[in-house]
Amino acid sequence: MTTTDELATFIREVDYETLPDDIVEATKKRLLDSVGIALGAAESETAAAVRETVLQEGRDACSLWATDERASPSGAAMYNTVLTRYLDFMDSFLAPGETPHPSDNVGTVVAVGELVDATGRDLIEATALAYEIQGELAWNAPVRDRGFDHVTHTVITQATAAAALLDLDHEAIRDAIGIAGTAHNALRVTRTGGINEWKGVASGNAARNGTYAALLADNGMEGPKDLFEGQKGWKQIIAGDFEVDLDTSCSRVHDVMTKRYVAETYAQSAVEGIIDLAEEHDIDHEEVTSIDLDTFHGAKLIIGGGEGDRHEVETKAQADHSLPYMLAAALIDRQMLTEQYERARIQSEDVQTLLQTVTVEEDEELTERFEDGEMPAVIDIELEDGTTYHVEKDDFRGHPNTPMDWDELEAKFHPMAATVYGESRREEIIDCIRNLEERHVDDLLALLD
């Protein structure tokens, strides 16, 4: 039976000194990817709104990335997490019934790490354990089909990462998890129907709440220690019965994908496939009469029309959760990055016309392949003269089956961070994270001011 006692025992047992070298390396890759994505979002209107809000709480404890401002620990955790999440360029854990984004934990790890004067090894350890818990909850306790958003998992992992850095004792960790998991369960309506900006901020809110829960526990606040198994508890109301199998080597970090494109997780193979076709055959979008995508259940449900019409696209929040939009824009532009989500691009006539030709169908065989560890996509493009182009994808570059190496991550990092820092500073950030086990949280934050 999964309990707060089991999670607290796991957190106290995870130790940087016993993490395998490949786990340390993979965790540092997650940190680099998350920081780069965050810097790419630093000048967005949504980030500005969150920044102004958290600054109202206080300005003394923790750094807000890419600014010279400071906020409360929970406020900094929220703001920095919004940065990693807002562009929809973050990593994802691929489970059959849930797809959370473990990089949502990084903003909390660094904020609480600053509060406690953490070493780089402390940051790696807290990040790795958060990824492990997030992966196990996603795999064994999916909540999507029960009407809850995946940040319902995230608030628990935020609390565990913060509790580890605060060095809470066993019972206080149980309190922190109990507070976080009882008080902050998000509804799936965040990502259904008419999608709005809260989609990209919900995980930041979870970061704030998870951090605050750990701080409350650190100051002696008791929480429901029977969070999972208790009467009307998490298992009965939120997830149903489940068991986790937590590994103190934190091997789940290897099961996380890195996005190659600024697009919802389940769109990655399809976007890569349509760009491949467009480039190989030099397809003129004005000659396209139809784009047909066969995909797996989750993709159809979330971004293909299963939870609301995805052909009505006017905003970024709608565009990055619309397969019709992403396929149309990717075919025309041969790319899917931040510029494809500018309002003028979204509302332009060419992409609005082409997205209406896109159909998305679920294929049971592709769903089985997804559940077996692939991310399949089958695309057919038909032109006015009857010519048809076809491509089938098993996965994409960045999927756990074909992970990105350091050079590819650096290539992704540079254009994101270039909106804030020059090349020399960017190289310093990369070097700091790549050698984080020999550095200190202040070394990293000095580069992110």
TrEMBL record:
GO terms for molecular function: 2-methylcitrate dehydratase activity. Residues 6-245 form the MmgE/PrpD N-terminal domain. It is an enzyme of class 4 (lyase). Its EC number is 4.2.1.79. Keywords: Lyase, Plasmid. It comes from the Archaea. Residues 261-437 form the MmgE/PrpD C-terminal domain. Belongs to the PrpD family. This is 2-methylcitrate dehydratase.
